[in-house]
């Protein structure tokens, strides 16, 4: 293979495998790097930037590396700074597509009909404008229109083009609203987030002089996660790249999992059509996973069609076989996984942060949270709101805290406004002043007739009614088991009635009411507990999910796990209807679901568990579940199914019993 004659320092060559070296050295013409999971793609991009600068092919100020997230851009900038010392990298651009688009719009604002200092509307700003343009429309309808307009912009369509492409009446309605919305943005001298790609594309494609100027400004382009580009982003890449294709695109068609938000994995194939001289380099050596995990991943993804098939391999050991857990139901599944995590943590001294539990949808986290809480295993829920942080659950918890402890002012303030009653901010502020002068907590102040007389009669009556209800529920707490108390307060407090009034659909109401029912279930078995014991239970259940996760078990959706890695990985809900998702089964879209599972499998560095339930309780009905068809696509030689090896199962059970006994003994001694 012939390369340009270049002087490459020995330290630069050290540590790169042959395909990585080929990708770094190729600087003449377009390049597509098909980078398998864990194959070192970020290092390749960083080393290529260093090569372009040190070989004097391009100065740093004419190189742009585009990522999909600010976090990825920050990490890449830090790695480049460590790799290239001094001021050699000064002027280098490493940013997201939207950040680069914003820079272009700022420079070319006059050509785009914008004044200097234009505003960029976020999603909430845009939604407010659309709501104003759709008087009387329900919130769901406004959000649906927002989604259709965003989809049109991500396809690079102007309002006129969207109108021409519209087929269904709903699409024509969205196109008409799109035109009005753009007029509104122009009035405010504003653009929205999607315009930061659409407007540069429109300008680069229509203005040859501007296109040439930007190609001179950006001499070499590197694009990470190219399989996740939508149509507008791909056209942005083409507009910026020179005709001869001075770019490197890095991607993996097997990890394309964002079609639902407009990503088009076919863009990888389109590169070869648009740039016939395109060179393709495959990175197949994996530096993350055991070979057993990789063989399972390869076998699974081989069922998808491939224009450029890859086969990941590693020089690491085979590792343990993939465990397949068959469970009775969701709760049993969560209990088994929590117990397994506790056992490994105790027996191998493995930090909690080395464990990750993955699922198809965030709603699947609830049984897991309960099981982890009961074993006092710290966890962090990513990509969603932790169960105990959901609004309706926090409302119910405020009521429970107030019942258990009348001194809890924060619980009083939340409970008295959940649901809303004739007690406004002014009344609460006045009550606060009276309570402060009387040296009483708010709940006790609200019980004082002498203090209530100093409030407006209507507000005083409302507070008196609230106090009577809390007092009655406090009496109920002395005779009802905690789970029944939760169900009682959910009804009597008005929380359920308020949810019904707030929710626009029966499905949303049932989902949010289910959260309150789930909270009640958490207290099952704690019979005979009074307010004091209840307060202790609440202290055990309280769980913060903010800031740096630190040393905690990670819970996240499969979509959120992309780019991450963990020593121990559990993938739950391996049933048809969950993974693959029911909608994908109905629409025949199995390829992306298979890629989603592939992403999950390749997060595991050392050990992997796949679990499924035999049955589930849905809307009061017990359903029989079918194990995921994807389990049959995995090589049986790499799997360890429940009951397949009775001797090993017995040994494993005995070992766990010993460790669990030691843990219980230590807990009692503590």
Question: Topology, please?
Answer:
Elements: H1 10-13, H2 18-25, E1 31-35, H3 41-54, E2 63-67, H4 70-83, E3 93-96, H5 97-107, E4 119-121, H6 123-133, H7 139-154, H8 159-165, H9 169-187, E5 190-192, H10 195-206, H11 208-217, E6 220-223, H12 231-240, E7 247-251, H13 267-274, E8 279-283, H14 291-301, E9 322-327, H15 330-348, E10 355-359, H16 365-374, E11 379-381, H17 391-404, H18 409-416, H19 425-438, H20 442-447, H21 449-452, H22 457-479, H23 482-492, H24 495-502, H25 506-522, H26 531-541, E12 553-557, E13 566-571, H27 582-587, H28 590-601, E14 604-613, E15 615-618, E16 621-624, E17 639-641, H29 646-669
Parallel strand pairs: 1-7, 1-8, 2-3, 2-6, 4-5, 6-7, 9-14, 9-17, 10-12, 10-13, 11-12, 13-14
Antiparallel strand pairs: 15-16
Helix pairs in contact: 2-3, 3-4, 5-10, 6-7, 7-9, 8-9, 10-11, 10-12, 14-28, 15-16, 15-29, 17-18, 17-22, 17-26, 22-23, 23-25, 24-25
Structural features, described:
It is a single chain. With 670 residues, the chain is an alpha/beta fold. It folds into 4 domains: 10-102 and 199-285, P-loop containing nucleotide triphosphate hydrolases (Rossmann fold, 3-Layer(aba) Sandwich); 121-188, Arc Repressor Mutant, subunit A, CATH 1.10.10; 322-384 and 545-669, Rossmann fold, CATH 3.40.50; 388-541, PCRA, domain 4. Helices cover 51% and strands 12% of the residues. It contains 29 helices and 17 strands. The strands form 4 sheets. A 7-stranded parallel β-sheet has the order 11-12-10-13-14-9-17. Strands 3-2-6-7-1-8 form a 6-stranded parallel β-sheet. Helix 4 links the parallel strand 2 (63-67) and strand 3 (93-96). The model is unreliable at 1-11 and 539-547 (pLDDT under 50).
């Amino acid at each position: 293979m012939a390369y340009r004659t270049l002087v490459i320092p020995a330290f630069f060559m050290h540590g790169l495998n042959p395909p990585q070296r080929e990708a770094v050295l190729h600087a003449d013409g377009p390049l597509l790097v098909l980078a398998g999971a864990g194959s070192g793609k970020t290092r390749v991009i960083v080393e290529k930037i260093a090569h372009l600068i040190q070989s004097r092919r391009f100065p740093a100020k004419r190189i742009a590396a585009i990522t999909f997230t600010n976090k990825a851009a920050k990490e890449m900038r830090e790695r480049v700074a460590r790799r290239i010392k001094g001021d050699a990298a000064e002027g280098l651009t490493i940013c997201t597509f939207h950040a680069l688009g914003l820079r272009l719009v700022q420079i070319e604002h006059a050509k785009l009909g914008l004044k200097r200092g234009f505003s960029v509307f976020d999603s909430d700003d845009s939604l407010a404008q659309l709501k104003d343009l759709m008087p009387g429309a329900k919130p769901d309808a406004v959000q649906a229109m927002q989604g259709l307009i965003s989809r049109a912009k991500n396809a690079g369509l102007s309002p006129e083009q969207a109108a021409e492409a519209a087929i269904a009446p709903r699409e024509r309605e969205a196109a008409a609203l799109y035109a009005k919305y753009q007029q509104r943005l122009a009035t405010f001298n504003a653009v929205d987030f999607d315009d930061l790609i659409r407007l540069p594309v429109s300008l680069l494609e229509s203005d040859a002089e501007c296109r040439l100027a930007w190609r001179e400004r950006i001499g070499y382009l590197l694009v990470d996660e190219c399989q996740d580009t939508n149509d507008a982003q791909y056209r942005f890449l083409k507009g910026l790249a020179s005709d001869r294709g001075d770019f490197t695109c890095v991607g993996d068609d097997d990890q394309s999992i964002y079609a639902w938000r407009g990503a088009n994995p076919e863009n990888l194939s389109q590169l070869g059509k648009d740039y016939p001289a395109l060179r393709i380099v495959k990175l197949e050596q994996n530096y993350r996973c055991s070979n057993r995990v990789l063989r399972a991943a390869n076998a699974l993804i081989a069922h998808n069609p491939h224009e450029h098939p890859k086969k990941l391999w590693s020089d690491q050991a085979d590792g343990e076989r993939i465990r397949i857990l068959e469970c009775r139901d969701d709760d049993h599944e969560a209990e088994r996984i929590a117990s397994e995590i506790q056992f490994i943590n105790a027996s191998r001294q493995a930090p909690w942060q080395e464990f990750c539990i993955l699922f198809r949808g965030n709603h699947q986290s609830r049984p897991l949270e309960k099981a982890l809480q009961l074993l006092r295993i710290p966890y962090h829920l990513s990509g969603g709101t932790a169960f105990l942080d959901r609004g309706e659950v926090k409302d119910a918890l405020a009521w429970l805290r107030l019942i258990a402890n009348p001194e809890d002012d924060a619980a009083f303030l939340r409970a008295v406004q959940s649901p809303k009653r004739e007690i406004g901010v002014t009344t609460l502020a006045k009550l606060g002043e009276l309570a402060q002068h009387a040296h009483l907590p708010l709940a006790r102040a609200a019980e004082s007739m002498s203090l209530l007389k100093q409030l407006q009669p209507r507000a005083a009556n409302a507070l008196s009614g609230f106090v009577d209800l809390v007092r009655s529920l406090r009496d109920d707490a002395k005779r009802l088991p905690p789970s029944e108390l939760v169900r009682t307060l959910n009804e009597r407090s008005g929380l359920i009635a308020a949810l019904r009034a707030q929710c626009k659909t029966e499905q949303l109401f049932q989902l949010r009411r289910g959260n309150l029912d789930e909270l009640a279930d958490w207290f099952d078995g704690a019979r005979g507990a009074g307010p004091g014991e209840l307060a202790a239970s609440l202290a055990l259940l309280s769980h913060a999910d903010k800031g740096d996760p630190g040393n905690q078990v990670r819970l996240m959706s499969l979509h959120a796990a992309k780019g991450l890695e963990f020593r121990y990985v559990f993938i739950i809900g391996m049933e048809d209807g969950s993974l693959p998702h029911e909608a994908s089964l109905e629409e025949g879209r199995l390829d992306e679901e298979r890629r989603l599972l592939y992403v999950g499998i390749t997060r595991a560095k050392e050990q992997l568990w796949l679990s499924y339930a035999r049955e589930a309780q849905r809307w009061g009905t017990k359903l029989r579940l079918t194990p995921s068809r994807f389990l049959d696509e995995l090589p049986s030689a790499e799997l360890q199914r429940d009951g397949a090896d009775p001797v090993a199962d017995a040994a494993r059970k005995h070992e766990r019993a010993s460790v669990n006994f030691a843990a219980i003994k230590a807990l009692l001694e503590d």
